[in-house]
Sequence to fold (688 residues):
Amino acid sequence: MDHLSNFCLLAVVLINFYCLGSARLGACIQAVALQGALLALLPLTEHGLSGHTLFLALAALAMKGGFIPWMLFRAIREVRIKREVEPLIGYVPTLILGALTTVAAFIFADYLPLLPEHLGCLFIPVSLATLGTGFLLLITRRKAITQVLGYLMLENGIFIFGILLSEAMPLMVEAGVLLDLLVGVFVMGIVLNQINREFSSLNTERLSALRE
Amino acid sequence: MLIAVIVVPLFFATIVWLLPSHRMRSLMLPLGSGLQLILSILLICQPPIRNLAWIGLDDLARLVLLVTAVLFFACAVYGLDYLNLRVDRDNHIMVSCLLVFLSAMTLAVLSRHLGLLWVAVETTTIASAPLIYFNRNALSIEATWKYLLICSVGIALAMLGILFVGYASLSNGSEVSLQFDTLLAEAPHMAGPWLHAGFVFLLVGFGTKMGLAPLHTWKPDAYGEAPGLVGALLAGCLTSVAFLAILRGVQLMGAAGDLDMARHALLGMGLLSLTVAAIFVIRQTDIKRMLAFSSVEHMGILAIGVGIGGIATFGAMLHLINNALTKGSLFLAAGNIHRAHASKKMSGVHGAMARLPLSGGLFLAGFLAITGSPPFGPFLSEFTILRGVFAGEHYLIGALVLTLLATVFIGMGSTVLSVTQGKADPTLEDNGFRDRLLLVAPPLLLLLIVLMLGLYLPEPLSQLLRGAAALIEVQP
Fold:
């Protein structure tokens, strides 16, 4: 089972890079959806099949792999945008930054006082790398929708870490966390639509009237 | 009863969608929150009850529950009249989101499980975002977007912090649980580095929600563009709830014997908040943004109080009540002034006391209260905190705090006096809005409570404050 976990985690890292380098929003949403779906497999590969893990996997698959991407696709169709034009930092520099973040995450994870059974496993470095990539997307992109994707990626990173502890999380709380994420993205989708209506654009740099 | 106090507002929030008339929907607001207030008070006065596994009531929770329930009820009564003034706006979303917001805050206060606490706090973010967007214009959408994104990311980091705390107890080799009492019991055996990292992330995450500098950037925008009523709830209730969440982290650190590290972190952020607020409050021309920076300042004072410890912690607990109620009163009064002048900038508001004697007077009195003038409550609590600072022989910090408090007083004073004093400017358009009973009584009542707290602290309340402070002070 470990091979499968590692395969999923490596795929997650590749998707991180894909999102950093791609200009097409549709492709980015698909990539984040695929990432969510891959993550949904992890509770099963890590903890084996049980009611709890099955529920977690199915719920994560439905939310992260299905429902949220569907809402985002609807949002970009309504506001008719396809591409992220002119990010604040170009694609190549962000890719390099992403690579540095990932390397740093792997090195840093080696120094962490991990439990013996987690030594050398990919969960923690990949979690940190995904977290960092999410932050990069949040900071470097101008379109509000890419920022939502960055937020989702950040959540994915935290989800990976959470899998190590999924025994500590009661089912109700897991469900609550996923539901909050869903409703949060739903509200963000509505706000996106309103931003577009108000400014005829989704560029967040237009959102700069409020400042000191 | 513990469950009822959470479910009652939710129940009223669903009823809202079944009611056909605007006025009846507005009426659900004071009804739902009034019932919740009664239940909360019954719950607080009860002798200690057996906690359920995930929700329970300790003295800290009692204190914050009392503050949120009282302030929310005052805002709900205000909201009844406010929404009736604005029949042009559909109030389905406003009323139901307000009630869901109340329910989520109550859940956050009562939760004894870190996962549940997180879910509840995140729900408050989502439920309050539509409230900020009530005015549906370009500025409010910008404020909503910043609020939603910054707070969601912040809260996500708090989740990471919670997971770190869980990992810390995992390395102990025992059964992992995020149930708070279990964690407190296990804290002395937790892996130090993970617990410390967890606390830092909790502080950053919930600190974003609370608005401690440098994580406060959403605050002036959100408070500035939200209706006065929503500003009052965000600045009074939500910040107190977020502070409670941070205090849970402090409790864990205390149980693990690392209280000093937690205190230093809080002290640093508190001083930074105070400094940032003092810089930005000067020459602030927008009264609601000015109040937002004042909120940053008071979050800083709360953090300093707990950061110093001893008697200052007691002062911080008292300050939590004082700040929430005074801020509520100020925002409600500012809402009235904004409404009457159709402006919240210094350039558009002059002589508010001439046009709105009560709201203008309340705004001025609220300013005196919040900046710590006697005989109001904040004077007493800030004085107690400063006593703690000097008793601990932190003279440098004490001098710095006093200077910054004086700066804030002068900075806020010049704005507030220019807005309230003088003749009503005849060139400014008069839209006929005058003081109305239901729009003035709630802030007046809140300010009277604050005044009473400054003159006389009832024994049961003082006992509650001591109990709450003792929970944070526990050393293993």
User: Anything to note?
Assistant: Residues 13 and 87 of chain A are 21 Å apart (CA to CA).
